[in-house]
Design goal:
14 helices; alpha/beta; globular
Amino acid sequence: MLSFFDFEKNIADLEGQLEELRHLSDIGDIKIADEVSKLQSRIDKALGSTYSKLTAWQKVQVARHPKRPHCVDFIGALVEDFVPLAGDRNFSEDAAIVGGIGRFRGGSVVVIGQEKGRDTETRIKHSFGMPKPEGYRKAVRLVGLADKFNLPVLTFVDTPGAYPGIGAEERGQSEAIARSIEKFLSVGQPVVSVVIGEGGSGGAIALATANEVMMMEHSIYSVISPEGCASILWRSSDHAERAAEALKLTAQDLLKFGVIDRIIPEPLGAAHRSPEKAIEAVGAAIAESLRQLVGMEPKQLIKERQEKFLRMGDEALLD
C-alpha cells in the first residue's frame, strides 16, 4: 500500500476513485475501461504538475520515502554475481555500509553503498544507514582492493549522516571519514557515485568523492540535515522546512553550483512509485559514465578527480 504525502492530497483522492472503479469492475460486469483511462490520465497529469514544482522540504520527504529503492535494491538489480565483503580488519563489521565485488554489465567492479534498512529489524541492523568508523575503514579496504586489481568503483550514497554515538567518536569517526575521502581521492581507478536518497554531511562525501557524482532527481545532498541545521540556528527542529530552503540541498541546486555532474531523472511520481524504472535509469547513467572513464590513465583519473574537488573550494571562495 503506497503512502501519500500531505502535498499529494489531490492525487490520493484520484487514486482512491481509481481503486473504487477497479473494484466495481471486479465484482460486476461493468465496462469502465474508458473511465479508468481518463482517471489515470488525470492522475498522471497531477503527478507531473506536483513533482515538477516540489519545494526543498518536499524533496527531503520524497528522498526519505520508505518505498524508495535502497542500496541493496540497486545492487541486487544491477550487479551480477555480487560477493559481499565484510569487516575492516581492525575492529568489526558495520552493516550500515554494504560492499563487495561483482559484475556490472559484464565488467568486474567494486561496489560500496549505505543501507538504511526497511523495517524495524533491518533498520537496527544497518544503524538506519549511519556508518560507524569501521564502516568507513571497510570502504577504504575495498577501494584498496579496487586499486590493486584495477576495478572501477561504484558507490550508492544514502545516509542521514555518520553515526553520532560516543563509541564511534572514541574509535575515531572523523579520522575514519577523512581517511576514506583521502583514499577515494588517490585511487587510480574510475569512481562513479550516485546519491540515491539522502546525502548527509561527511558521512556521505566519504563515499562520494568520485570522478562522476550523480544525484537522482528527488534526492538531497547537504552538509547537515534540515532538522540538525534548524536545531543549531533556531534552537528548534520545527524550523526544518526553513532550513531545507536555506541549505540548497536539491539536485537542481547542486548541479547549478557544480557540486554534482549530472541529475538522473526519476519516473513519474518519483522512484518510490516505479522502483524498477528508477533502478534502470541509474544503471544506464552509470554505464554511460564508465564508458567515458574506463581506459583513462590512473594519473589522469586522480588528477581530474582532485582538481574537481579543489575547484569547488575555489569557486566557493570567489562567490
